[in-house]
Structure formats: structure tokens, C-alpha cells
Amino acid sequence: MGFKHISLFLLLSLLILTILSGAGQALASGKKQHVSQRNKTALAAAGGGGKEMLKGRKQTSGCNLFQGRWVFDASYPFYDSSTCPFIDGEFDCLKFGRPDKQFLKYSWLPDSCTVPRFDGEAFLKKWRGKRVMFVGDSLSLNMWESLGCMIHSSVPNTKTTFLKRTPLSSLTFQEYDVTLFLYRTPYLVDISKESVGRVLNLGAIEDGADAWKNMDLLVFNSWHWWTHTGVQSQGWDFIRDGSSLTRDMDRLDAFNKGLTTWGQWIDQNVNVSQTRVFFQGISPTHYMGREWNEPRKTCNGQMQPLTGSTYPGGSLPAASIVSRVLSSMRTPVYLLDITTLSQLRKDAHPSTYGGDGGTDCSHWCLPGLPDTWNQLLYAALSI
Fold this sequence. Notes:
Elements: H1 2-49, H2 51-61, E1 68-72, E2 106-110, H3 120-126, E3 131-136, H4 138-154, E4 160-163, E5 168-173, E6 178-184, E7 190-194, E8 197-201, E9 217-220, H5 231-234, E10 238-241, E11 244-246, H6 251-269, E12 276-279, H7 317-327, E13 333-335, H8 339-343, H9 369-382
Parallel strand pairs: 3-6, 3-9, 8-10, 9-12, 12-13
Antiparallel strand pairs: 1-2, 4-5, 5-6, 7-8, 10-11
Helix pairs in contact: 1-2, 3-4, 4-9, 6-7
């Protein structure tokens, strides 16, 4: 009996060891399959997909699309200005004689993630039947025309309908039923006619704002006009702040109040289950060379970006206001934080090649920097 008991015990032990060994192999096999699949995903992204890697890095390492540097890239630009029918003359620097072309050959390289190259056809397929609207000033125009050209270069034979009006313009890619709108309103808040004249009302958004509703993607922008002075340049005679009517006030304070009103409008009127909201960020100017340690210079004659990832002139106070207002809102708004990367591009303005005889260090040549803004918008929409 003792021998039988020992034999039975040995058999049971062997059986248990066999089961445990099989389970271990199964677990190891499953782990190897997981690693293999992860490697496949990374390789696919490196091969040009980009989306999976971008999403993974965003989740695992806090990808910041807007921290990085400019690098020479022979594959740029995305399009030829002479073949894009949507560019305003003020942005078409090559048409008006800009002799250097190196400014077209830079791409933005973030420190912590890979930006997928813009694919206009993929954008149209993803947004088929959708409505995209840029809302703001002439820098919104800059970005809107850029996106139109970038998409057109991917599908040059697709029929389009292009309507340029004030305040609402549109560009429709008919085959895909995708429309890019532009709504011009430089302050976002209203300028109304009162008995005293034109009044910038910091607490009101009523004029035309219904046009912003029911969009699938909204990209807002404002600041450029808040710095204008003189009744002709600024477009208003008085500022209304609540019950107070004044000739002028601190422009940063006014911007803060106006943008807060905009934020309240967004919170009350945007359905986040339907609409994604972006804020374009503050676009810098390059009129004062002391900001980049060339005190007697402007953007005129600049032929290359600043190196590195920081701007000698520091951050812009208006950018801090944007961040503060967005953080106070209930509605999630993605900040397309283009300020620093644009500050580094002192070379990318029309300067004297905007066709009007002046020096423009506020807007940007097309092709050019706004194409990068749109590429980063494309990347952010993929995250």
C-alpha cells in the first residue's frame, strides 16, 4: 500500500508540474505576441502612418507638439503658390518678387514626438460631409488659405467652389462635401453702432455668431487688432465695458474681458458632442529686432529662422491671457500653441513682398509658416 501511495503522489506531482509549465509557456507566448504587436505598430508609424506613434507618445510621455526646433527639410514646401488658386496677393511672396526660397525649406521638429506629414486626401475622407470654420482676423485668413492650398495640392483635380465675401467666405471640395469657412471678426466680440459712433462692446457677441453654430470644427483667433491704435486703424471709436463707455483702456485688459465673453459664449452655445474647438494661439510680429538681438533690424531681409527652441524676446503677455481664459472654461478647447515656434520664424513674413509697397512683419508668406500651423492642427486632430 505504501508503494502505491508513493507512486500515486509522484504521478500527481508530475501532472501538476506539467500543467504549470504549460501555463507558463502560454503566458510567455502571450507576452511575446504583445511585444510583437507593439513593435509592428511602432514600425508602421515610423513608415509613414504616424498616428499610432503620435497617440502613444501623447499618452506615455506627454508629447508636446509645440516644443521643438526648425530643421532644414528638402521635401518642403507642400505646394507651389502658382498652382493654388486661393492665395491672396498679400501672402504670395514669390509672385511679388521675393528672391530667396530657403524660407520654404524648413519643417518643425518637436522634441518629444513625431508629427505625421499632412495628407490632404486623408483629411477630406476623415471629414467627409463636415463643416470646418476659421473665425477671426487676417491671420485666420492666412491659415484658412493655407489649408485650402495644402488640400488642393493633394487632390488637384477635385472640383471646388470658392466664394470670397465679407464677413463669410467658403471653400468646398465638392466630391467630399467638405467645406472650409472663414468668418472675419477681428475682435470676436461685437462692434456696434451707437449714437456716439462705433462701439467695441467687450460684453457682447451677437452679430453673426449664429454662423459659428453647428460646425464640426471651429478654429478661433484674435489679438492682432487689439494692438491697433487710432480710430481708422482700430475700427472703433469707443469701448463699452459693462455700463462704462470710454475712449480707450489698457489693451491687454480689454482683450482679457473680450476673450472671457467669447469663452462664455462657447460654453453656452457649443455642443461638444458635435463640435471640436481650437484656439489658434497668438501669432507674433517681427518689427523690433531687439527681440532677437538685432536692434536695428526688422523682418525685412531675414532669410533663416532662429536656432534653438526659445525666443530671446520671451513670451507674449497676450498668450498668458489666452491660456488663463481657456483654463477657466467648461468646454474643452485645444490651444494650438503656435506662438514660440512662430517667434522663431523672423524670416517667414512677406516683408516688402506683399504687393502693397509696405513692410509686413505681421502676416506670413504662403507657402510658409501657416502650413506648419495646419500640419499641427492635423496632428492634434489625430490624437
